[in-house]
Structure formats: C-alpha cells, structure tokens
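Entry 12.
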Amino acid sequence: MTGVSKKKNKFLMLLKNDFLASARVISLFYIALALLFALFGICTGIAKIDSLSVEVLNKVSTVHTVSIAVSMLVSFLLIFVTFFFVVYDFFKSLFGQQGYLSFTLPVSSHQLLGSKVIIYGSWLAISYAVFMFTVYFMGTYTIDNVIGQEKISLVETLMMMLGDFPSITQLIAYAVYISVFFFVMIFSFVFIVYFAISLAHVRILQKFSLIASVPIFFVLAAVFFALAMKMSDIVNVFMLFNDDHTISISILREGMQIKSQYMMMPITPIISFIIIDVGMFFATSYVMHKKVNLK
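Predicted 3D structure (tokens):
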C-alpha cells in the first residue's frame, strides 16, 4: 500500500491522554454518586409497596433519607476533590517525575497548558453541574414529598407579609448567581495556583519550589482580587431581579441608590475574573516556556 499517512494532531492526542489520565481517578467518585442515586431509587420504589410492615418501611425511610443527605454531601465534596486533583495532577505531570517528558512533547507551552485547562476545567464544570443537579433534584423531591407544597406556600405568604423580604423566586435567582460566581472563583483559583507553581520552578526558586509556591500564591491571590475589585470601582455593572420577575442590567453610577425590594447582583467581578484568567493563562504559558527550569 502506498501513500502518505495522515499526520496526527498532537494537541488532540495530548487532550486524549490528559482526559484518560484524569478519568481513571475522578470517575470513581461519579460511580459512587451513581450508586447513591441507585440506592435512592430503590428505596423510593420499595416505599410504594403497600404490603410492607411498618418496621420495614421505617428502615427503608431511614436509608432513603440518608441516601438523600449523603448524595448531596458527596456531590458537594466532588467539587473540592476535583479541584485538588486538578492542582495535584498539574504539578505531578509538569513538575514531577513526568515533567521532563511532558516538556519534550512536540507541542507548544500554550497547548501544554491549554490541554490542562480544557480537560480539568471541563471536569470542574461537570462536577459543579452534577452538584447543582443533585441539589435541585433531591431538594425538589424533599419539598414535594417530605415538606409538602402547603408548607412552602405558607412560608411564601409569610415572606410576602414581611414587606421587603425577597420572594422565593428572587432567592432562587440569587442562589443561581452565587453559584455562577462561586464557580468562576474556583476556576480563578486554579489559574492562580498554576501560575504560582510554575513561577516557583524558575531557577532562582527551584530548590525551594514547594515552599516558595505558597507565599507566591497568596501574593498573587491578593493582587488578583484587588484588580477585580478595582475594576468594579471603575465600571460597576449589575443585574437586578425585579418584583415582576424581569431581569434588568445597568451600570451603578456615583450617587445612585437601589431600592430595597430589588436584589442587586454585581456582574463586573465575574467579568473581571474572566479577563484576568485569560491574562494569567498567557503569563503562565510564558513562564513555562521561557523561565521554568526542570529538575
């Protein structure tokens, strides 16, 4: 057979290898969460059997409640487990024993770092989405089958009687905003850690790289958040969730005040974090390419 074989995309191969390496560990936690959901489903099905004794139903109810609580806890811890793995594997694969091999691959520093950001960022996004789904699913089930809609309606009525107290819908909207903001912050911490680890491996700091990365991280974090807050002082873009369930976006100018019945959600910090994250990506890539001294 004659002809020229098609040249494989090295970056795609790098993405594939990073995905397979990370999936071996992180997937175990998803399997555990899937088993908890299965236990929840089994208990839900058993509880509908009318012929069971009260004693058995009580035991099933206990296991059912525990499966709900543990599922929500595991999904929450999954975010931090993923974050830890994202940081640990970045250090191990680039600055541990595998470091020399990684840096000799036929890819640029942008691609080397970009692969980590894409794969690990995806794992972080998935873990966060799983947490949100678990909380929503289990929370909805608890409201409908344990607490009851009548009690929820009573709470909503009492909240409306309090005047300026936000409605349930507004609280949900604000919870979603906080969730998005929290995820962006986690992603920003990843960029700060990546830059701190990379900077700690320049020649002058190489002998104390592990110790040096700690103060570098805190200094970078302080500068990072100071810059983000400074941007808010310059242009303060915010979102309002109004009483009529509409959303409005505006800029808060000096002297302006927001009525208490509206829930203000600042957007500038989120935009600032994303912009600085992009800058951190190129700064980390530059340090990896020009300044890192491999052991």
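Annotation: The chain is about 75% helix and 5% strand. The helical segments are 10-47, 54-95, 99-103, 109-147, 149-161, 168-199, 209-234, 268-291.
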